[in-house]
Specification:
34% strand; Impact_N; Impact_YigZ-like; Alpha-Beta Plaits; Ribosomal Protein S5, domain 2
Length: 203
């Protein structure tokens, strides 16, 4: 059973792959993305690189579980013959926070809708097979406030749970940020609740 607090993604873009079908050439790429705003600059760079290509089709997915966003774009190919087959491969590899682009150079022979679907699917699959897929955990960020005198207690709890300090501010009092795996968050919260002198909130 897959934990609901883990997801698969990639950290690095993949090497270019090439798929050929009846003189048409399909180049496939996979990029890690964190926001939708990152899609356009990457796409523009690929268009610049392949400025004489005919189509630059893509699909992306962001988020996990019930917060998934995705888009599939056929870029002038027949409806659902390019973007959706690419997106289908993102789903079958069960990965998220990725952008898959397939660039097509037309070779003079029409492939028909079935041929296109299969070519875009195969190219996306080949590109994703190149990817170094990593598993990450969904985390919850906590902000903890305390007086200096209670700092040691907070540090001890962080150490017990082996949690990182993401940031700390030492002014009139101490403010720390840490993050913990979603499935362990409740236990950590109970732990914090036992310290009356500190306040905390989830971000």
């Amino acid at each position: 059973m897959q934990h609901t607090d883990t997801y698969k993604t990639i950290d690095l873009p993949t090497e270019e792959v090439l798929f050929k079908e009846k003189h048409s050439k399909f180049f496939g790429y996979v990029f890690p993305i964190r926001t939708e705003e990152e899609v356009k600059p990457i796409l523009d760079a690929i268009k610049k690189q392949h400025h004489s290509a005919r189509h630059w089709c893509y699909a992306w997915q962001l988020g996990v579980e019930n917060q998934i966003q995705y888009r599939a774009n056929d870029d002038g190919e027949p409806n659902n013959s390019a973007g959706m087959p690419i997106y289908g491969q993102i789903q079958s590899f069960e990965i998220t926070n990725v952008l898959v682009i397939v660039v097509r150079y037309f070779g003079g022979i029409k492939l028909g809708v079935g041929g296109l679907i299969s070519a875009y699917k195969n190219t996306a699959q080949m590109a994703l097979e190149q990817a170094d897929i990593v598993e990450k955990t969904l985390n919850v960020t906590f902000e903890i406030k305390c007086d200096y005198k209670d700092l040691n207690k907070v540090m001890r709890i962080l150490k017990e749970h082996q949690l990182p300090i993401l940031s700390q501010q030492m002014e009139m009092d101490c403010t720390l940020r840490t993050e913990i795996r979603k499935s362990d968050a409740e236990q950590f919260e109970n732990h914090l609740n036992q310290l009356y002198e500190i306040t905390f909130k989830k971000l």
